[in-house]
Design brief:
2 helices, single chain, two-stranded antiparallel sheet, 107 residues, globular, 23% helix, alpha+beta
């Protein structure tokens, strides 16, 4: 049976796999879903594609997987001895994913 699919906002959702999506950045046409602005330099971040020097990945707190990602990130920072940073990230994790009032699957 072929999987029926549709394109929405750059991601392909396969009906067979309950809203399975690919990262929009992996279907790159020169634009990502989100642009990052560096407030310190007052300019958009460039050279930010896959494998480039400023590659990044944006996680919205409402993403249902955000809590797990941020909790692990905080643990890694704590293990490295950066306790204040780890605390700040864990505070984000405590408001993310299932703890977020608008929690939803990534799109």
């Amino acid at each position: 049976m072929k999987a029926a699919s549709r394109v929405t906002g750059g991601a392909v959702a396969h009906k067979e796999t309950s809203q399975m999506t690919r990262l929009m950045r992996n279907q790159r046409d020169g634009k990502g879903k989100y642009r990052v602005y560096d407030n310190r330099k007052e300019q958009w971040v460039v050279n930010d594609g896959p494998g480039e020097v400023n590659e990044h990945f944006v996680i919205m707190l409402k993403d249902k997987y955000a809590r797990a990602a941020l909790t692990k990130y905080a643990a890694e920072a704590a293990e490295a001895g950066d306790l204040e940073y780890a605390k700040d990230v864990q505070e984000l994790a405590n408001r993310a994913g299932p703890c977020h009032p608008a929690c939803k699957a990534p799109d």
